[in-house]
């Protein structure tokens, strides 16, 4: 092998094996291939274009070993920095380059990050029920599958659709195919009347040991969030997620003053700077930044390092729109990062596991990576090509008076 390998191609694959995924493939002159996830739910083609039209031409000819320099080049070298499209694109490049470094050295990525600090990564999955009996059944199903941590989302009387809740047997999938987003009606007062009792019923049903989580999905005002956190204190949540939109981060001080329910925020953040004051003011307990949308392994490790100083732990985003490539990357970070607490794992339809063949696996409430060099994921390009992109959007939400609110 020559001293410096070079990148000879950066190709973008858009595939829809049941849902859309954007995947970056970087190829080197030595014939190594690195994979990165570039999926941004409902805005997939923007990242595909950003990569194809603006980033790929810059990568060809570069040394794939220079991961940090490439990160800095794509971040600082763009006057219009940050934002989900840019950072997801940078994240995909970063993942692919770590994958290549693993393959060059014959090591799984977690070894290159300093080696394992734990044997496996605790994970949580989703339970969903339109009413409380259905929710309890769903929680039981996940317990039978061995999960030690479960996120519980419930229907709200009077509302036909609620974030995180499905009426079908299949798992919840927020993005809907079609030419426009689904419109949902949201009523915070009805949710606040119902949620504490429903979550208390789940706690009564499961006993003290199961870790319970709940996602308010950015819908509450600071005072509503404070009230909910207080009302849930006896439920002993592992975390209460995204209580407010968190664009105005100062409001979290009010929430924090009124409740000790642990808070988790950050799945829509794209850089360490958006997490900075929430971490350094200890306004959250868990930071939820995703390995793709927050700029890759290199960037997630910087967030983890800052968080560690303030005893904030990582609980990265991992729904069905984060591909098995990104899940692998998150697990490598999880194995090698002391303050990594838990990984979300919603699971995938069987076809997704066929397109993205991976050596990570789930057992007994934990996720583990294998020891293949790199990220341990291979993409079946022929199979992927059989499922072209299908337009899909996340829903939008309106209040009962018709005005838009946060989904
Ligand atoms: C979660 C998230 C997701 C998002 C989805 C949007 O906690 O898993 O809130 O369900 O809504 O990833 O694309
Ligand atoms: Mg969430």
From TrEMBL:
Keywords, alphabetical: Lyase
This enzyme's EC code(s): 4.2.1.8
Top-rank EC class of the record's enzyme: lyase
Lyase listed as a keyword: yes
PROSITE patterns: MR_MLE_1 (PS00908)
Alphabetized InterPro entries for the sequence: D-mannonate_dehydratase-like, DgoD-like, Enolase-like_C_sf, Enolase-like_N, Enolase_C-like, Mandel_Rmase/mucon_lact_enz_CS, Mandelate_racemase_C, Mandelate_racemase_N_dom
Source taxon at top rank: Bacteria
Keyword presence, Lyase: yes
Annotated SUPFAM superfamilies: Enolase C-terminal domain-like, Enolase N-terminal domain-like
Occurrences of domain Mandelate racemase/muconate lactonizing enzyme C-terminal (ranges): 132-262
GO MF term list: mannonate dehydratase activity
Coiled coil ranges: none
Name of the protein this chain belongs to: D-mannonate dehydratase ManD
Organism: Streptomyces bluensis
